[in-house]
Write a structure and sequence with these properties.
The protein has about 475 residues and is α+β, with helices and mostly antiparallel strands. Helices cover about 35% and strands about 20% of the residues. It has 4 domains: about 100 residues, Rossmann fold (3-Layer(aba) Sandwich); about 80 residues, ATP-grasp fold, A domain (Dna Ligase, domain 1, 2-Layer Sandwich), CATH 3.30.1490; about 140 residues, ATP-grasp fold, B domain (D-amino Acid Aminotransferase, Chain A, domain 1); about 110 residues. A hairpin with a 2-residue loop joins strand 9 and strand 10.
């Protein structure tokens, strides 16, 4: 008899059209859609589902969302409840607990509320930045006195760098407070309400980690000063799968791209692995994906930024499958169903890799974060990718995450985070050095390529 899987879909995680076929290979999928599937991939997604349960008009959260999930899990006779979304993970974990099914477990809040996360790490001695909860502007001013400024103001429940701003002194508190809260409120309108009632007002301030690549990368090598360990927890046991590295971020801390494989020397990768294990173990998760971000510092020191109880977003799962042959999405489905999970014997490194891959932000800046000078309309068909990348490198648009052709490209603002993204590009190349070089070339050349393609189209239309 086929297994029944309730798949709770909301914003975040790997693309739905990538994930659903891999989950459907393990059983019949009942798609509880807290947000509608992106129209461009909707038909393909529904072809992998036994039923579609549209729930996006209800916009439930907290206990109400848990009740909704439990109800539909029972109706479906679910053997597993599955999600890849940051915004649904707490409700899914609670629903699974109520039904006696495997899930992230009662400590999942430590992976969502950054205040609880930081406290757990302080208690366990995990290297991470000092912080203070800041329920109001007065608390933020006090944090500036207690900690070493400048501080990073961020939502306790946010993701994708949305609403994050640097505050250097008390003079900047009022403006930063207003801008950060406005960005989170706008993001909540576009996605789900944050995980708990009232969470939209939960903020913290933390010291900024002094990142450095000098003791890690020879001459920088084109990489940023942080990386992440992708992994999975099965029945309380953490299994790190591999490290993905980052291109340099743009101000304030917005990601431009991530790369697999990591080509740090293996002894350094094992140091990173050990720190990730310490951080994930301190969260006390049961079964779920993990995405643990770690800052590189001088003297080969490390500090953990965050660790989520879900897989990394963009095309990180696709990168790992392309480079290493491990299907994270399917591995988690197996774990939740109680089936054998194909796990690597040890964390994979570049010695195990075949080729390289990168998730690249489609963003209106160059690689240094300088905003485009033109307001352009996105149209992938007008871009000559071959003019920017090495022969043999493949560039694909990820449709689930990318605005449709004909859409104005968003302008980049400092507090926008990933809401300023026009989409995600998926690059595949022969090796890590090539994919890094080509990713930078795309960031630096895309404004010109898109503008040139638009001019050629207008000229053609006039002539014809």
């Amino acid at each position: 008899m086929s297994s029944q899987i309730l798949f709770v879909h909301a914003r975040g995680g790997p693309p739905l059209d990538y994930a659903l076929p891999r989950v459907a290979a393990r059983g019949q999928v009942h798609l509880l859609a807290l947000q509608p599937p992106p129209p461009v991939i909707a038909q393909e997604c529904l072809s992998h589902c036994t039923t579609l349960i549209p729930a996006w008009e209800q916009r439930r959260h907290g206990d109400d969302l848990t009740d909704l999930i439990v109800t539909h899990a029972r109706l479906a006779g679910a053997d597993a409840i599955y999600t890849l979304s940051e915004f649904a993970i707490t409700a899914v974990a609670r629903a699974a607990e109520r039904l006696g099914l495997p899930g992230a477990g009662p400590n999942v809040l430590r992976s969502r509320d950054k205040r609880l996360m930081r406290s757990a790490w302080e208690s366990a001695g995990v290297p991470s930045p000092r912080f203070r909860p800041v329920p109001d502007q007065g608390a933020l001013r006090q944090a500036l006195r207690d900690l070493t400024p400048p501080l990073l103001l961020k939502s306790a429940w946010g993701s994708g760098s949305v609403g994050q701003l640097v505050v250097g002194s008390a003079d900047g508190v009022a403006a930063a407070w207003a801008d950060s809260h406005a960005a989170i409120a706008e993001a909540a309108k576009a996605a789900l309400p944050l995980a708990e009632p009232g969470a939209i007002g939960d903020f913290l301030a933390e010291e900024i980690i002094p990142g450095s690549t000098r003791s890690w990368w020879a001459n920088g090598a084109g990489y940023g000063d942080y990386l992440s360990v992708e992994g999975i927890v099965v029945a309380g046991a953490y299994h790190p799968v591999c490290i993905t590295t980052r291109l340099p971020t743009i101000p304030p801390f917005t990601e431009t791209g991530n790369v697999a494989p990591c080509v740090l020397p293996e002894d350094l990768q094992r140091i990173v692995e050990s720190t990730a294990r310490q951080a994930v173990d301190a969260l006390g998760l049961s079964t779920g994906g993990t995405h643990t971000e770690i800052k590189l510092m001088a003297g080969r020191q490390l500090a953990v930024i965050e660790s989520a109880a879900r897989f990394g977003g963009a095309m990180i799962a696709g990168q790992i499958e392309h480079v290493y042959g491990y299907d994270l999405v399917g591995m988690l489905a197996d774990a939740l169903l109680g089936a054998p999970v194909r796990l690597p014997d040890r964390m994979l490194t570049d010695r195990d890799a075949q080729g390289a891959a990168c998730s690249l932000s489609l963003i209106g800046t160059d690689a240094a974060g300088v905003p485009w000078t033109q307001d352009l309309i996105w149209n992938a068909d007008l871009v000559d990718w071959s003019s920017m990348v090495t022969p043999g490198t493949r560039v694909d648009v990820v449709p689930a995450f990318t605005v449709p052709n004909g859409t104005p490209m968003p302008r980049y603002e400092l507090s926008s985070g990933n809401t300023a993204l026009g989409g995600i590009l998926f690059l595949r190349a022969a090796d890590a050095a090539t994919v890094v070089r080509d990713a930078r070339a795309v960031l630096n050349g895309l404004e010109h390529a898109l503008a040139e393609g638009s001019r050629e189209l207008v000229t053609l239309e006039v002539v014809t």
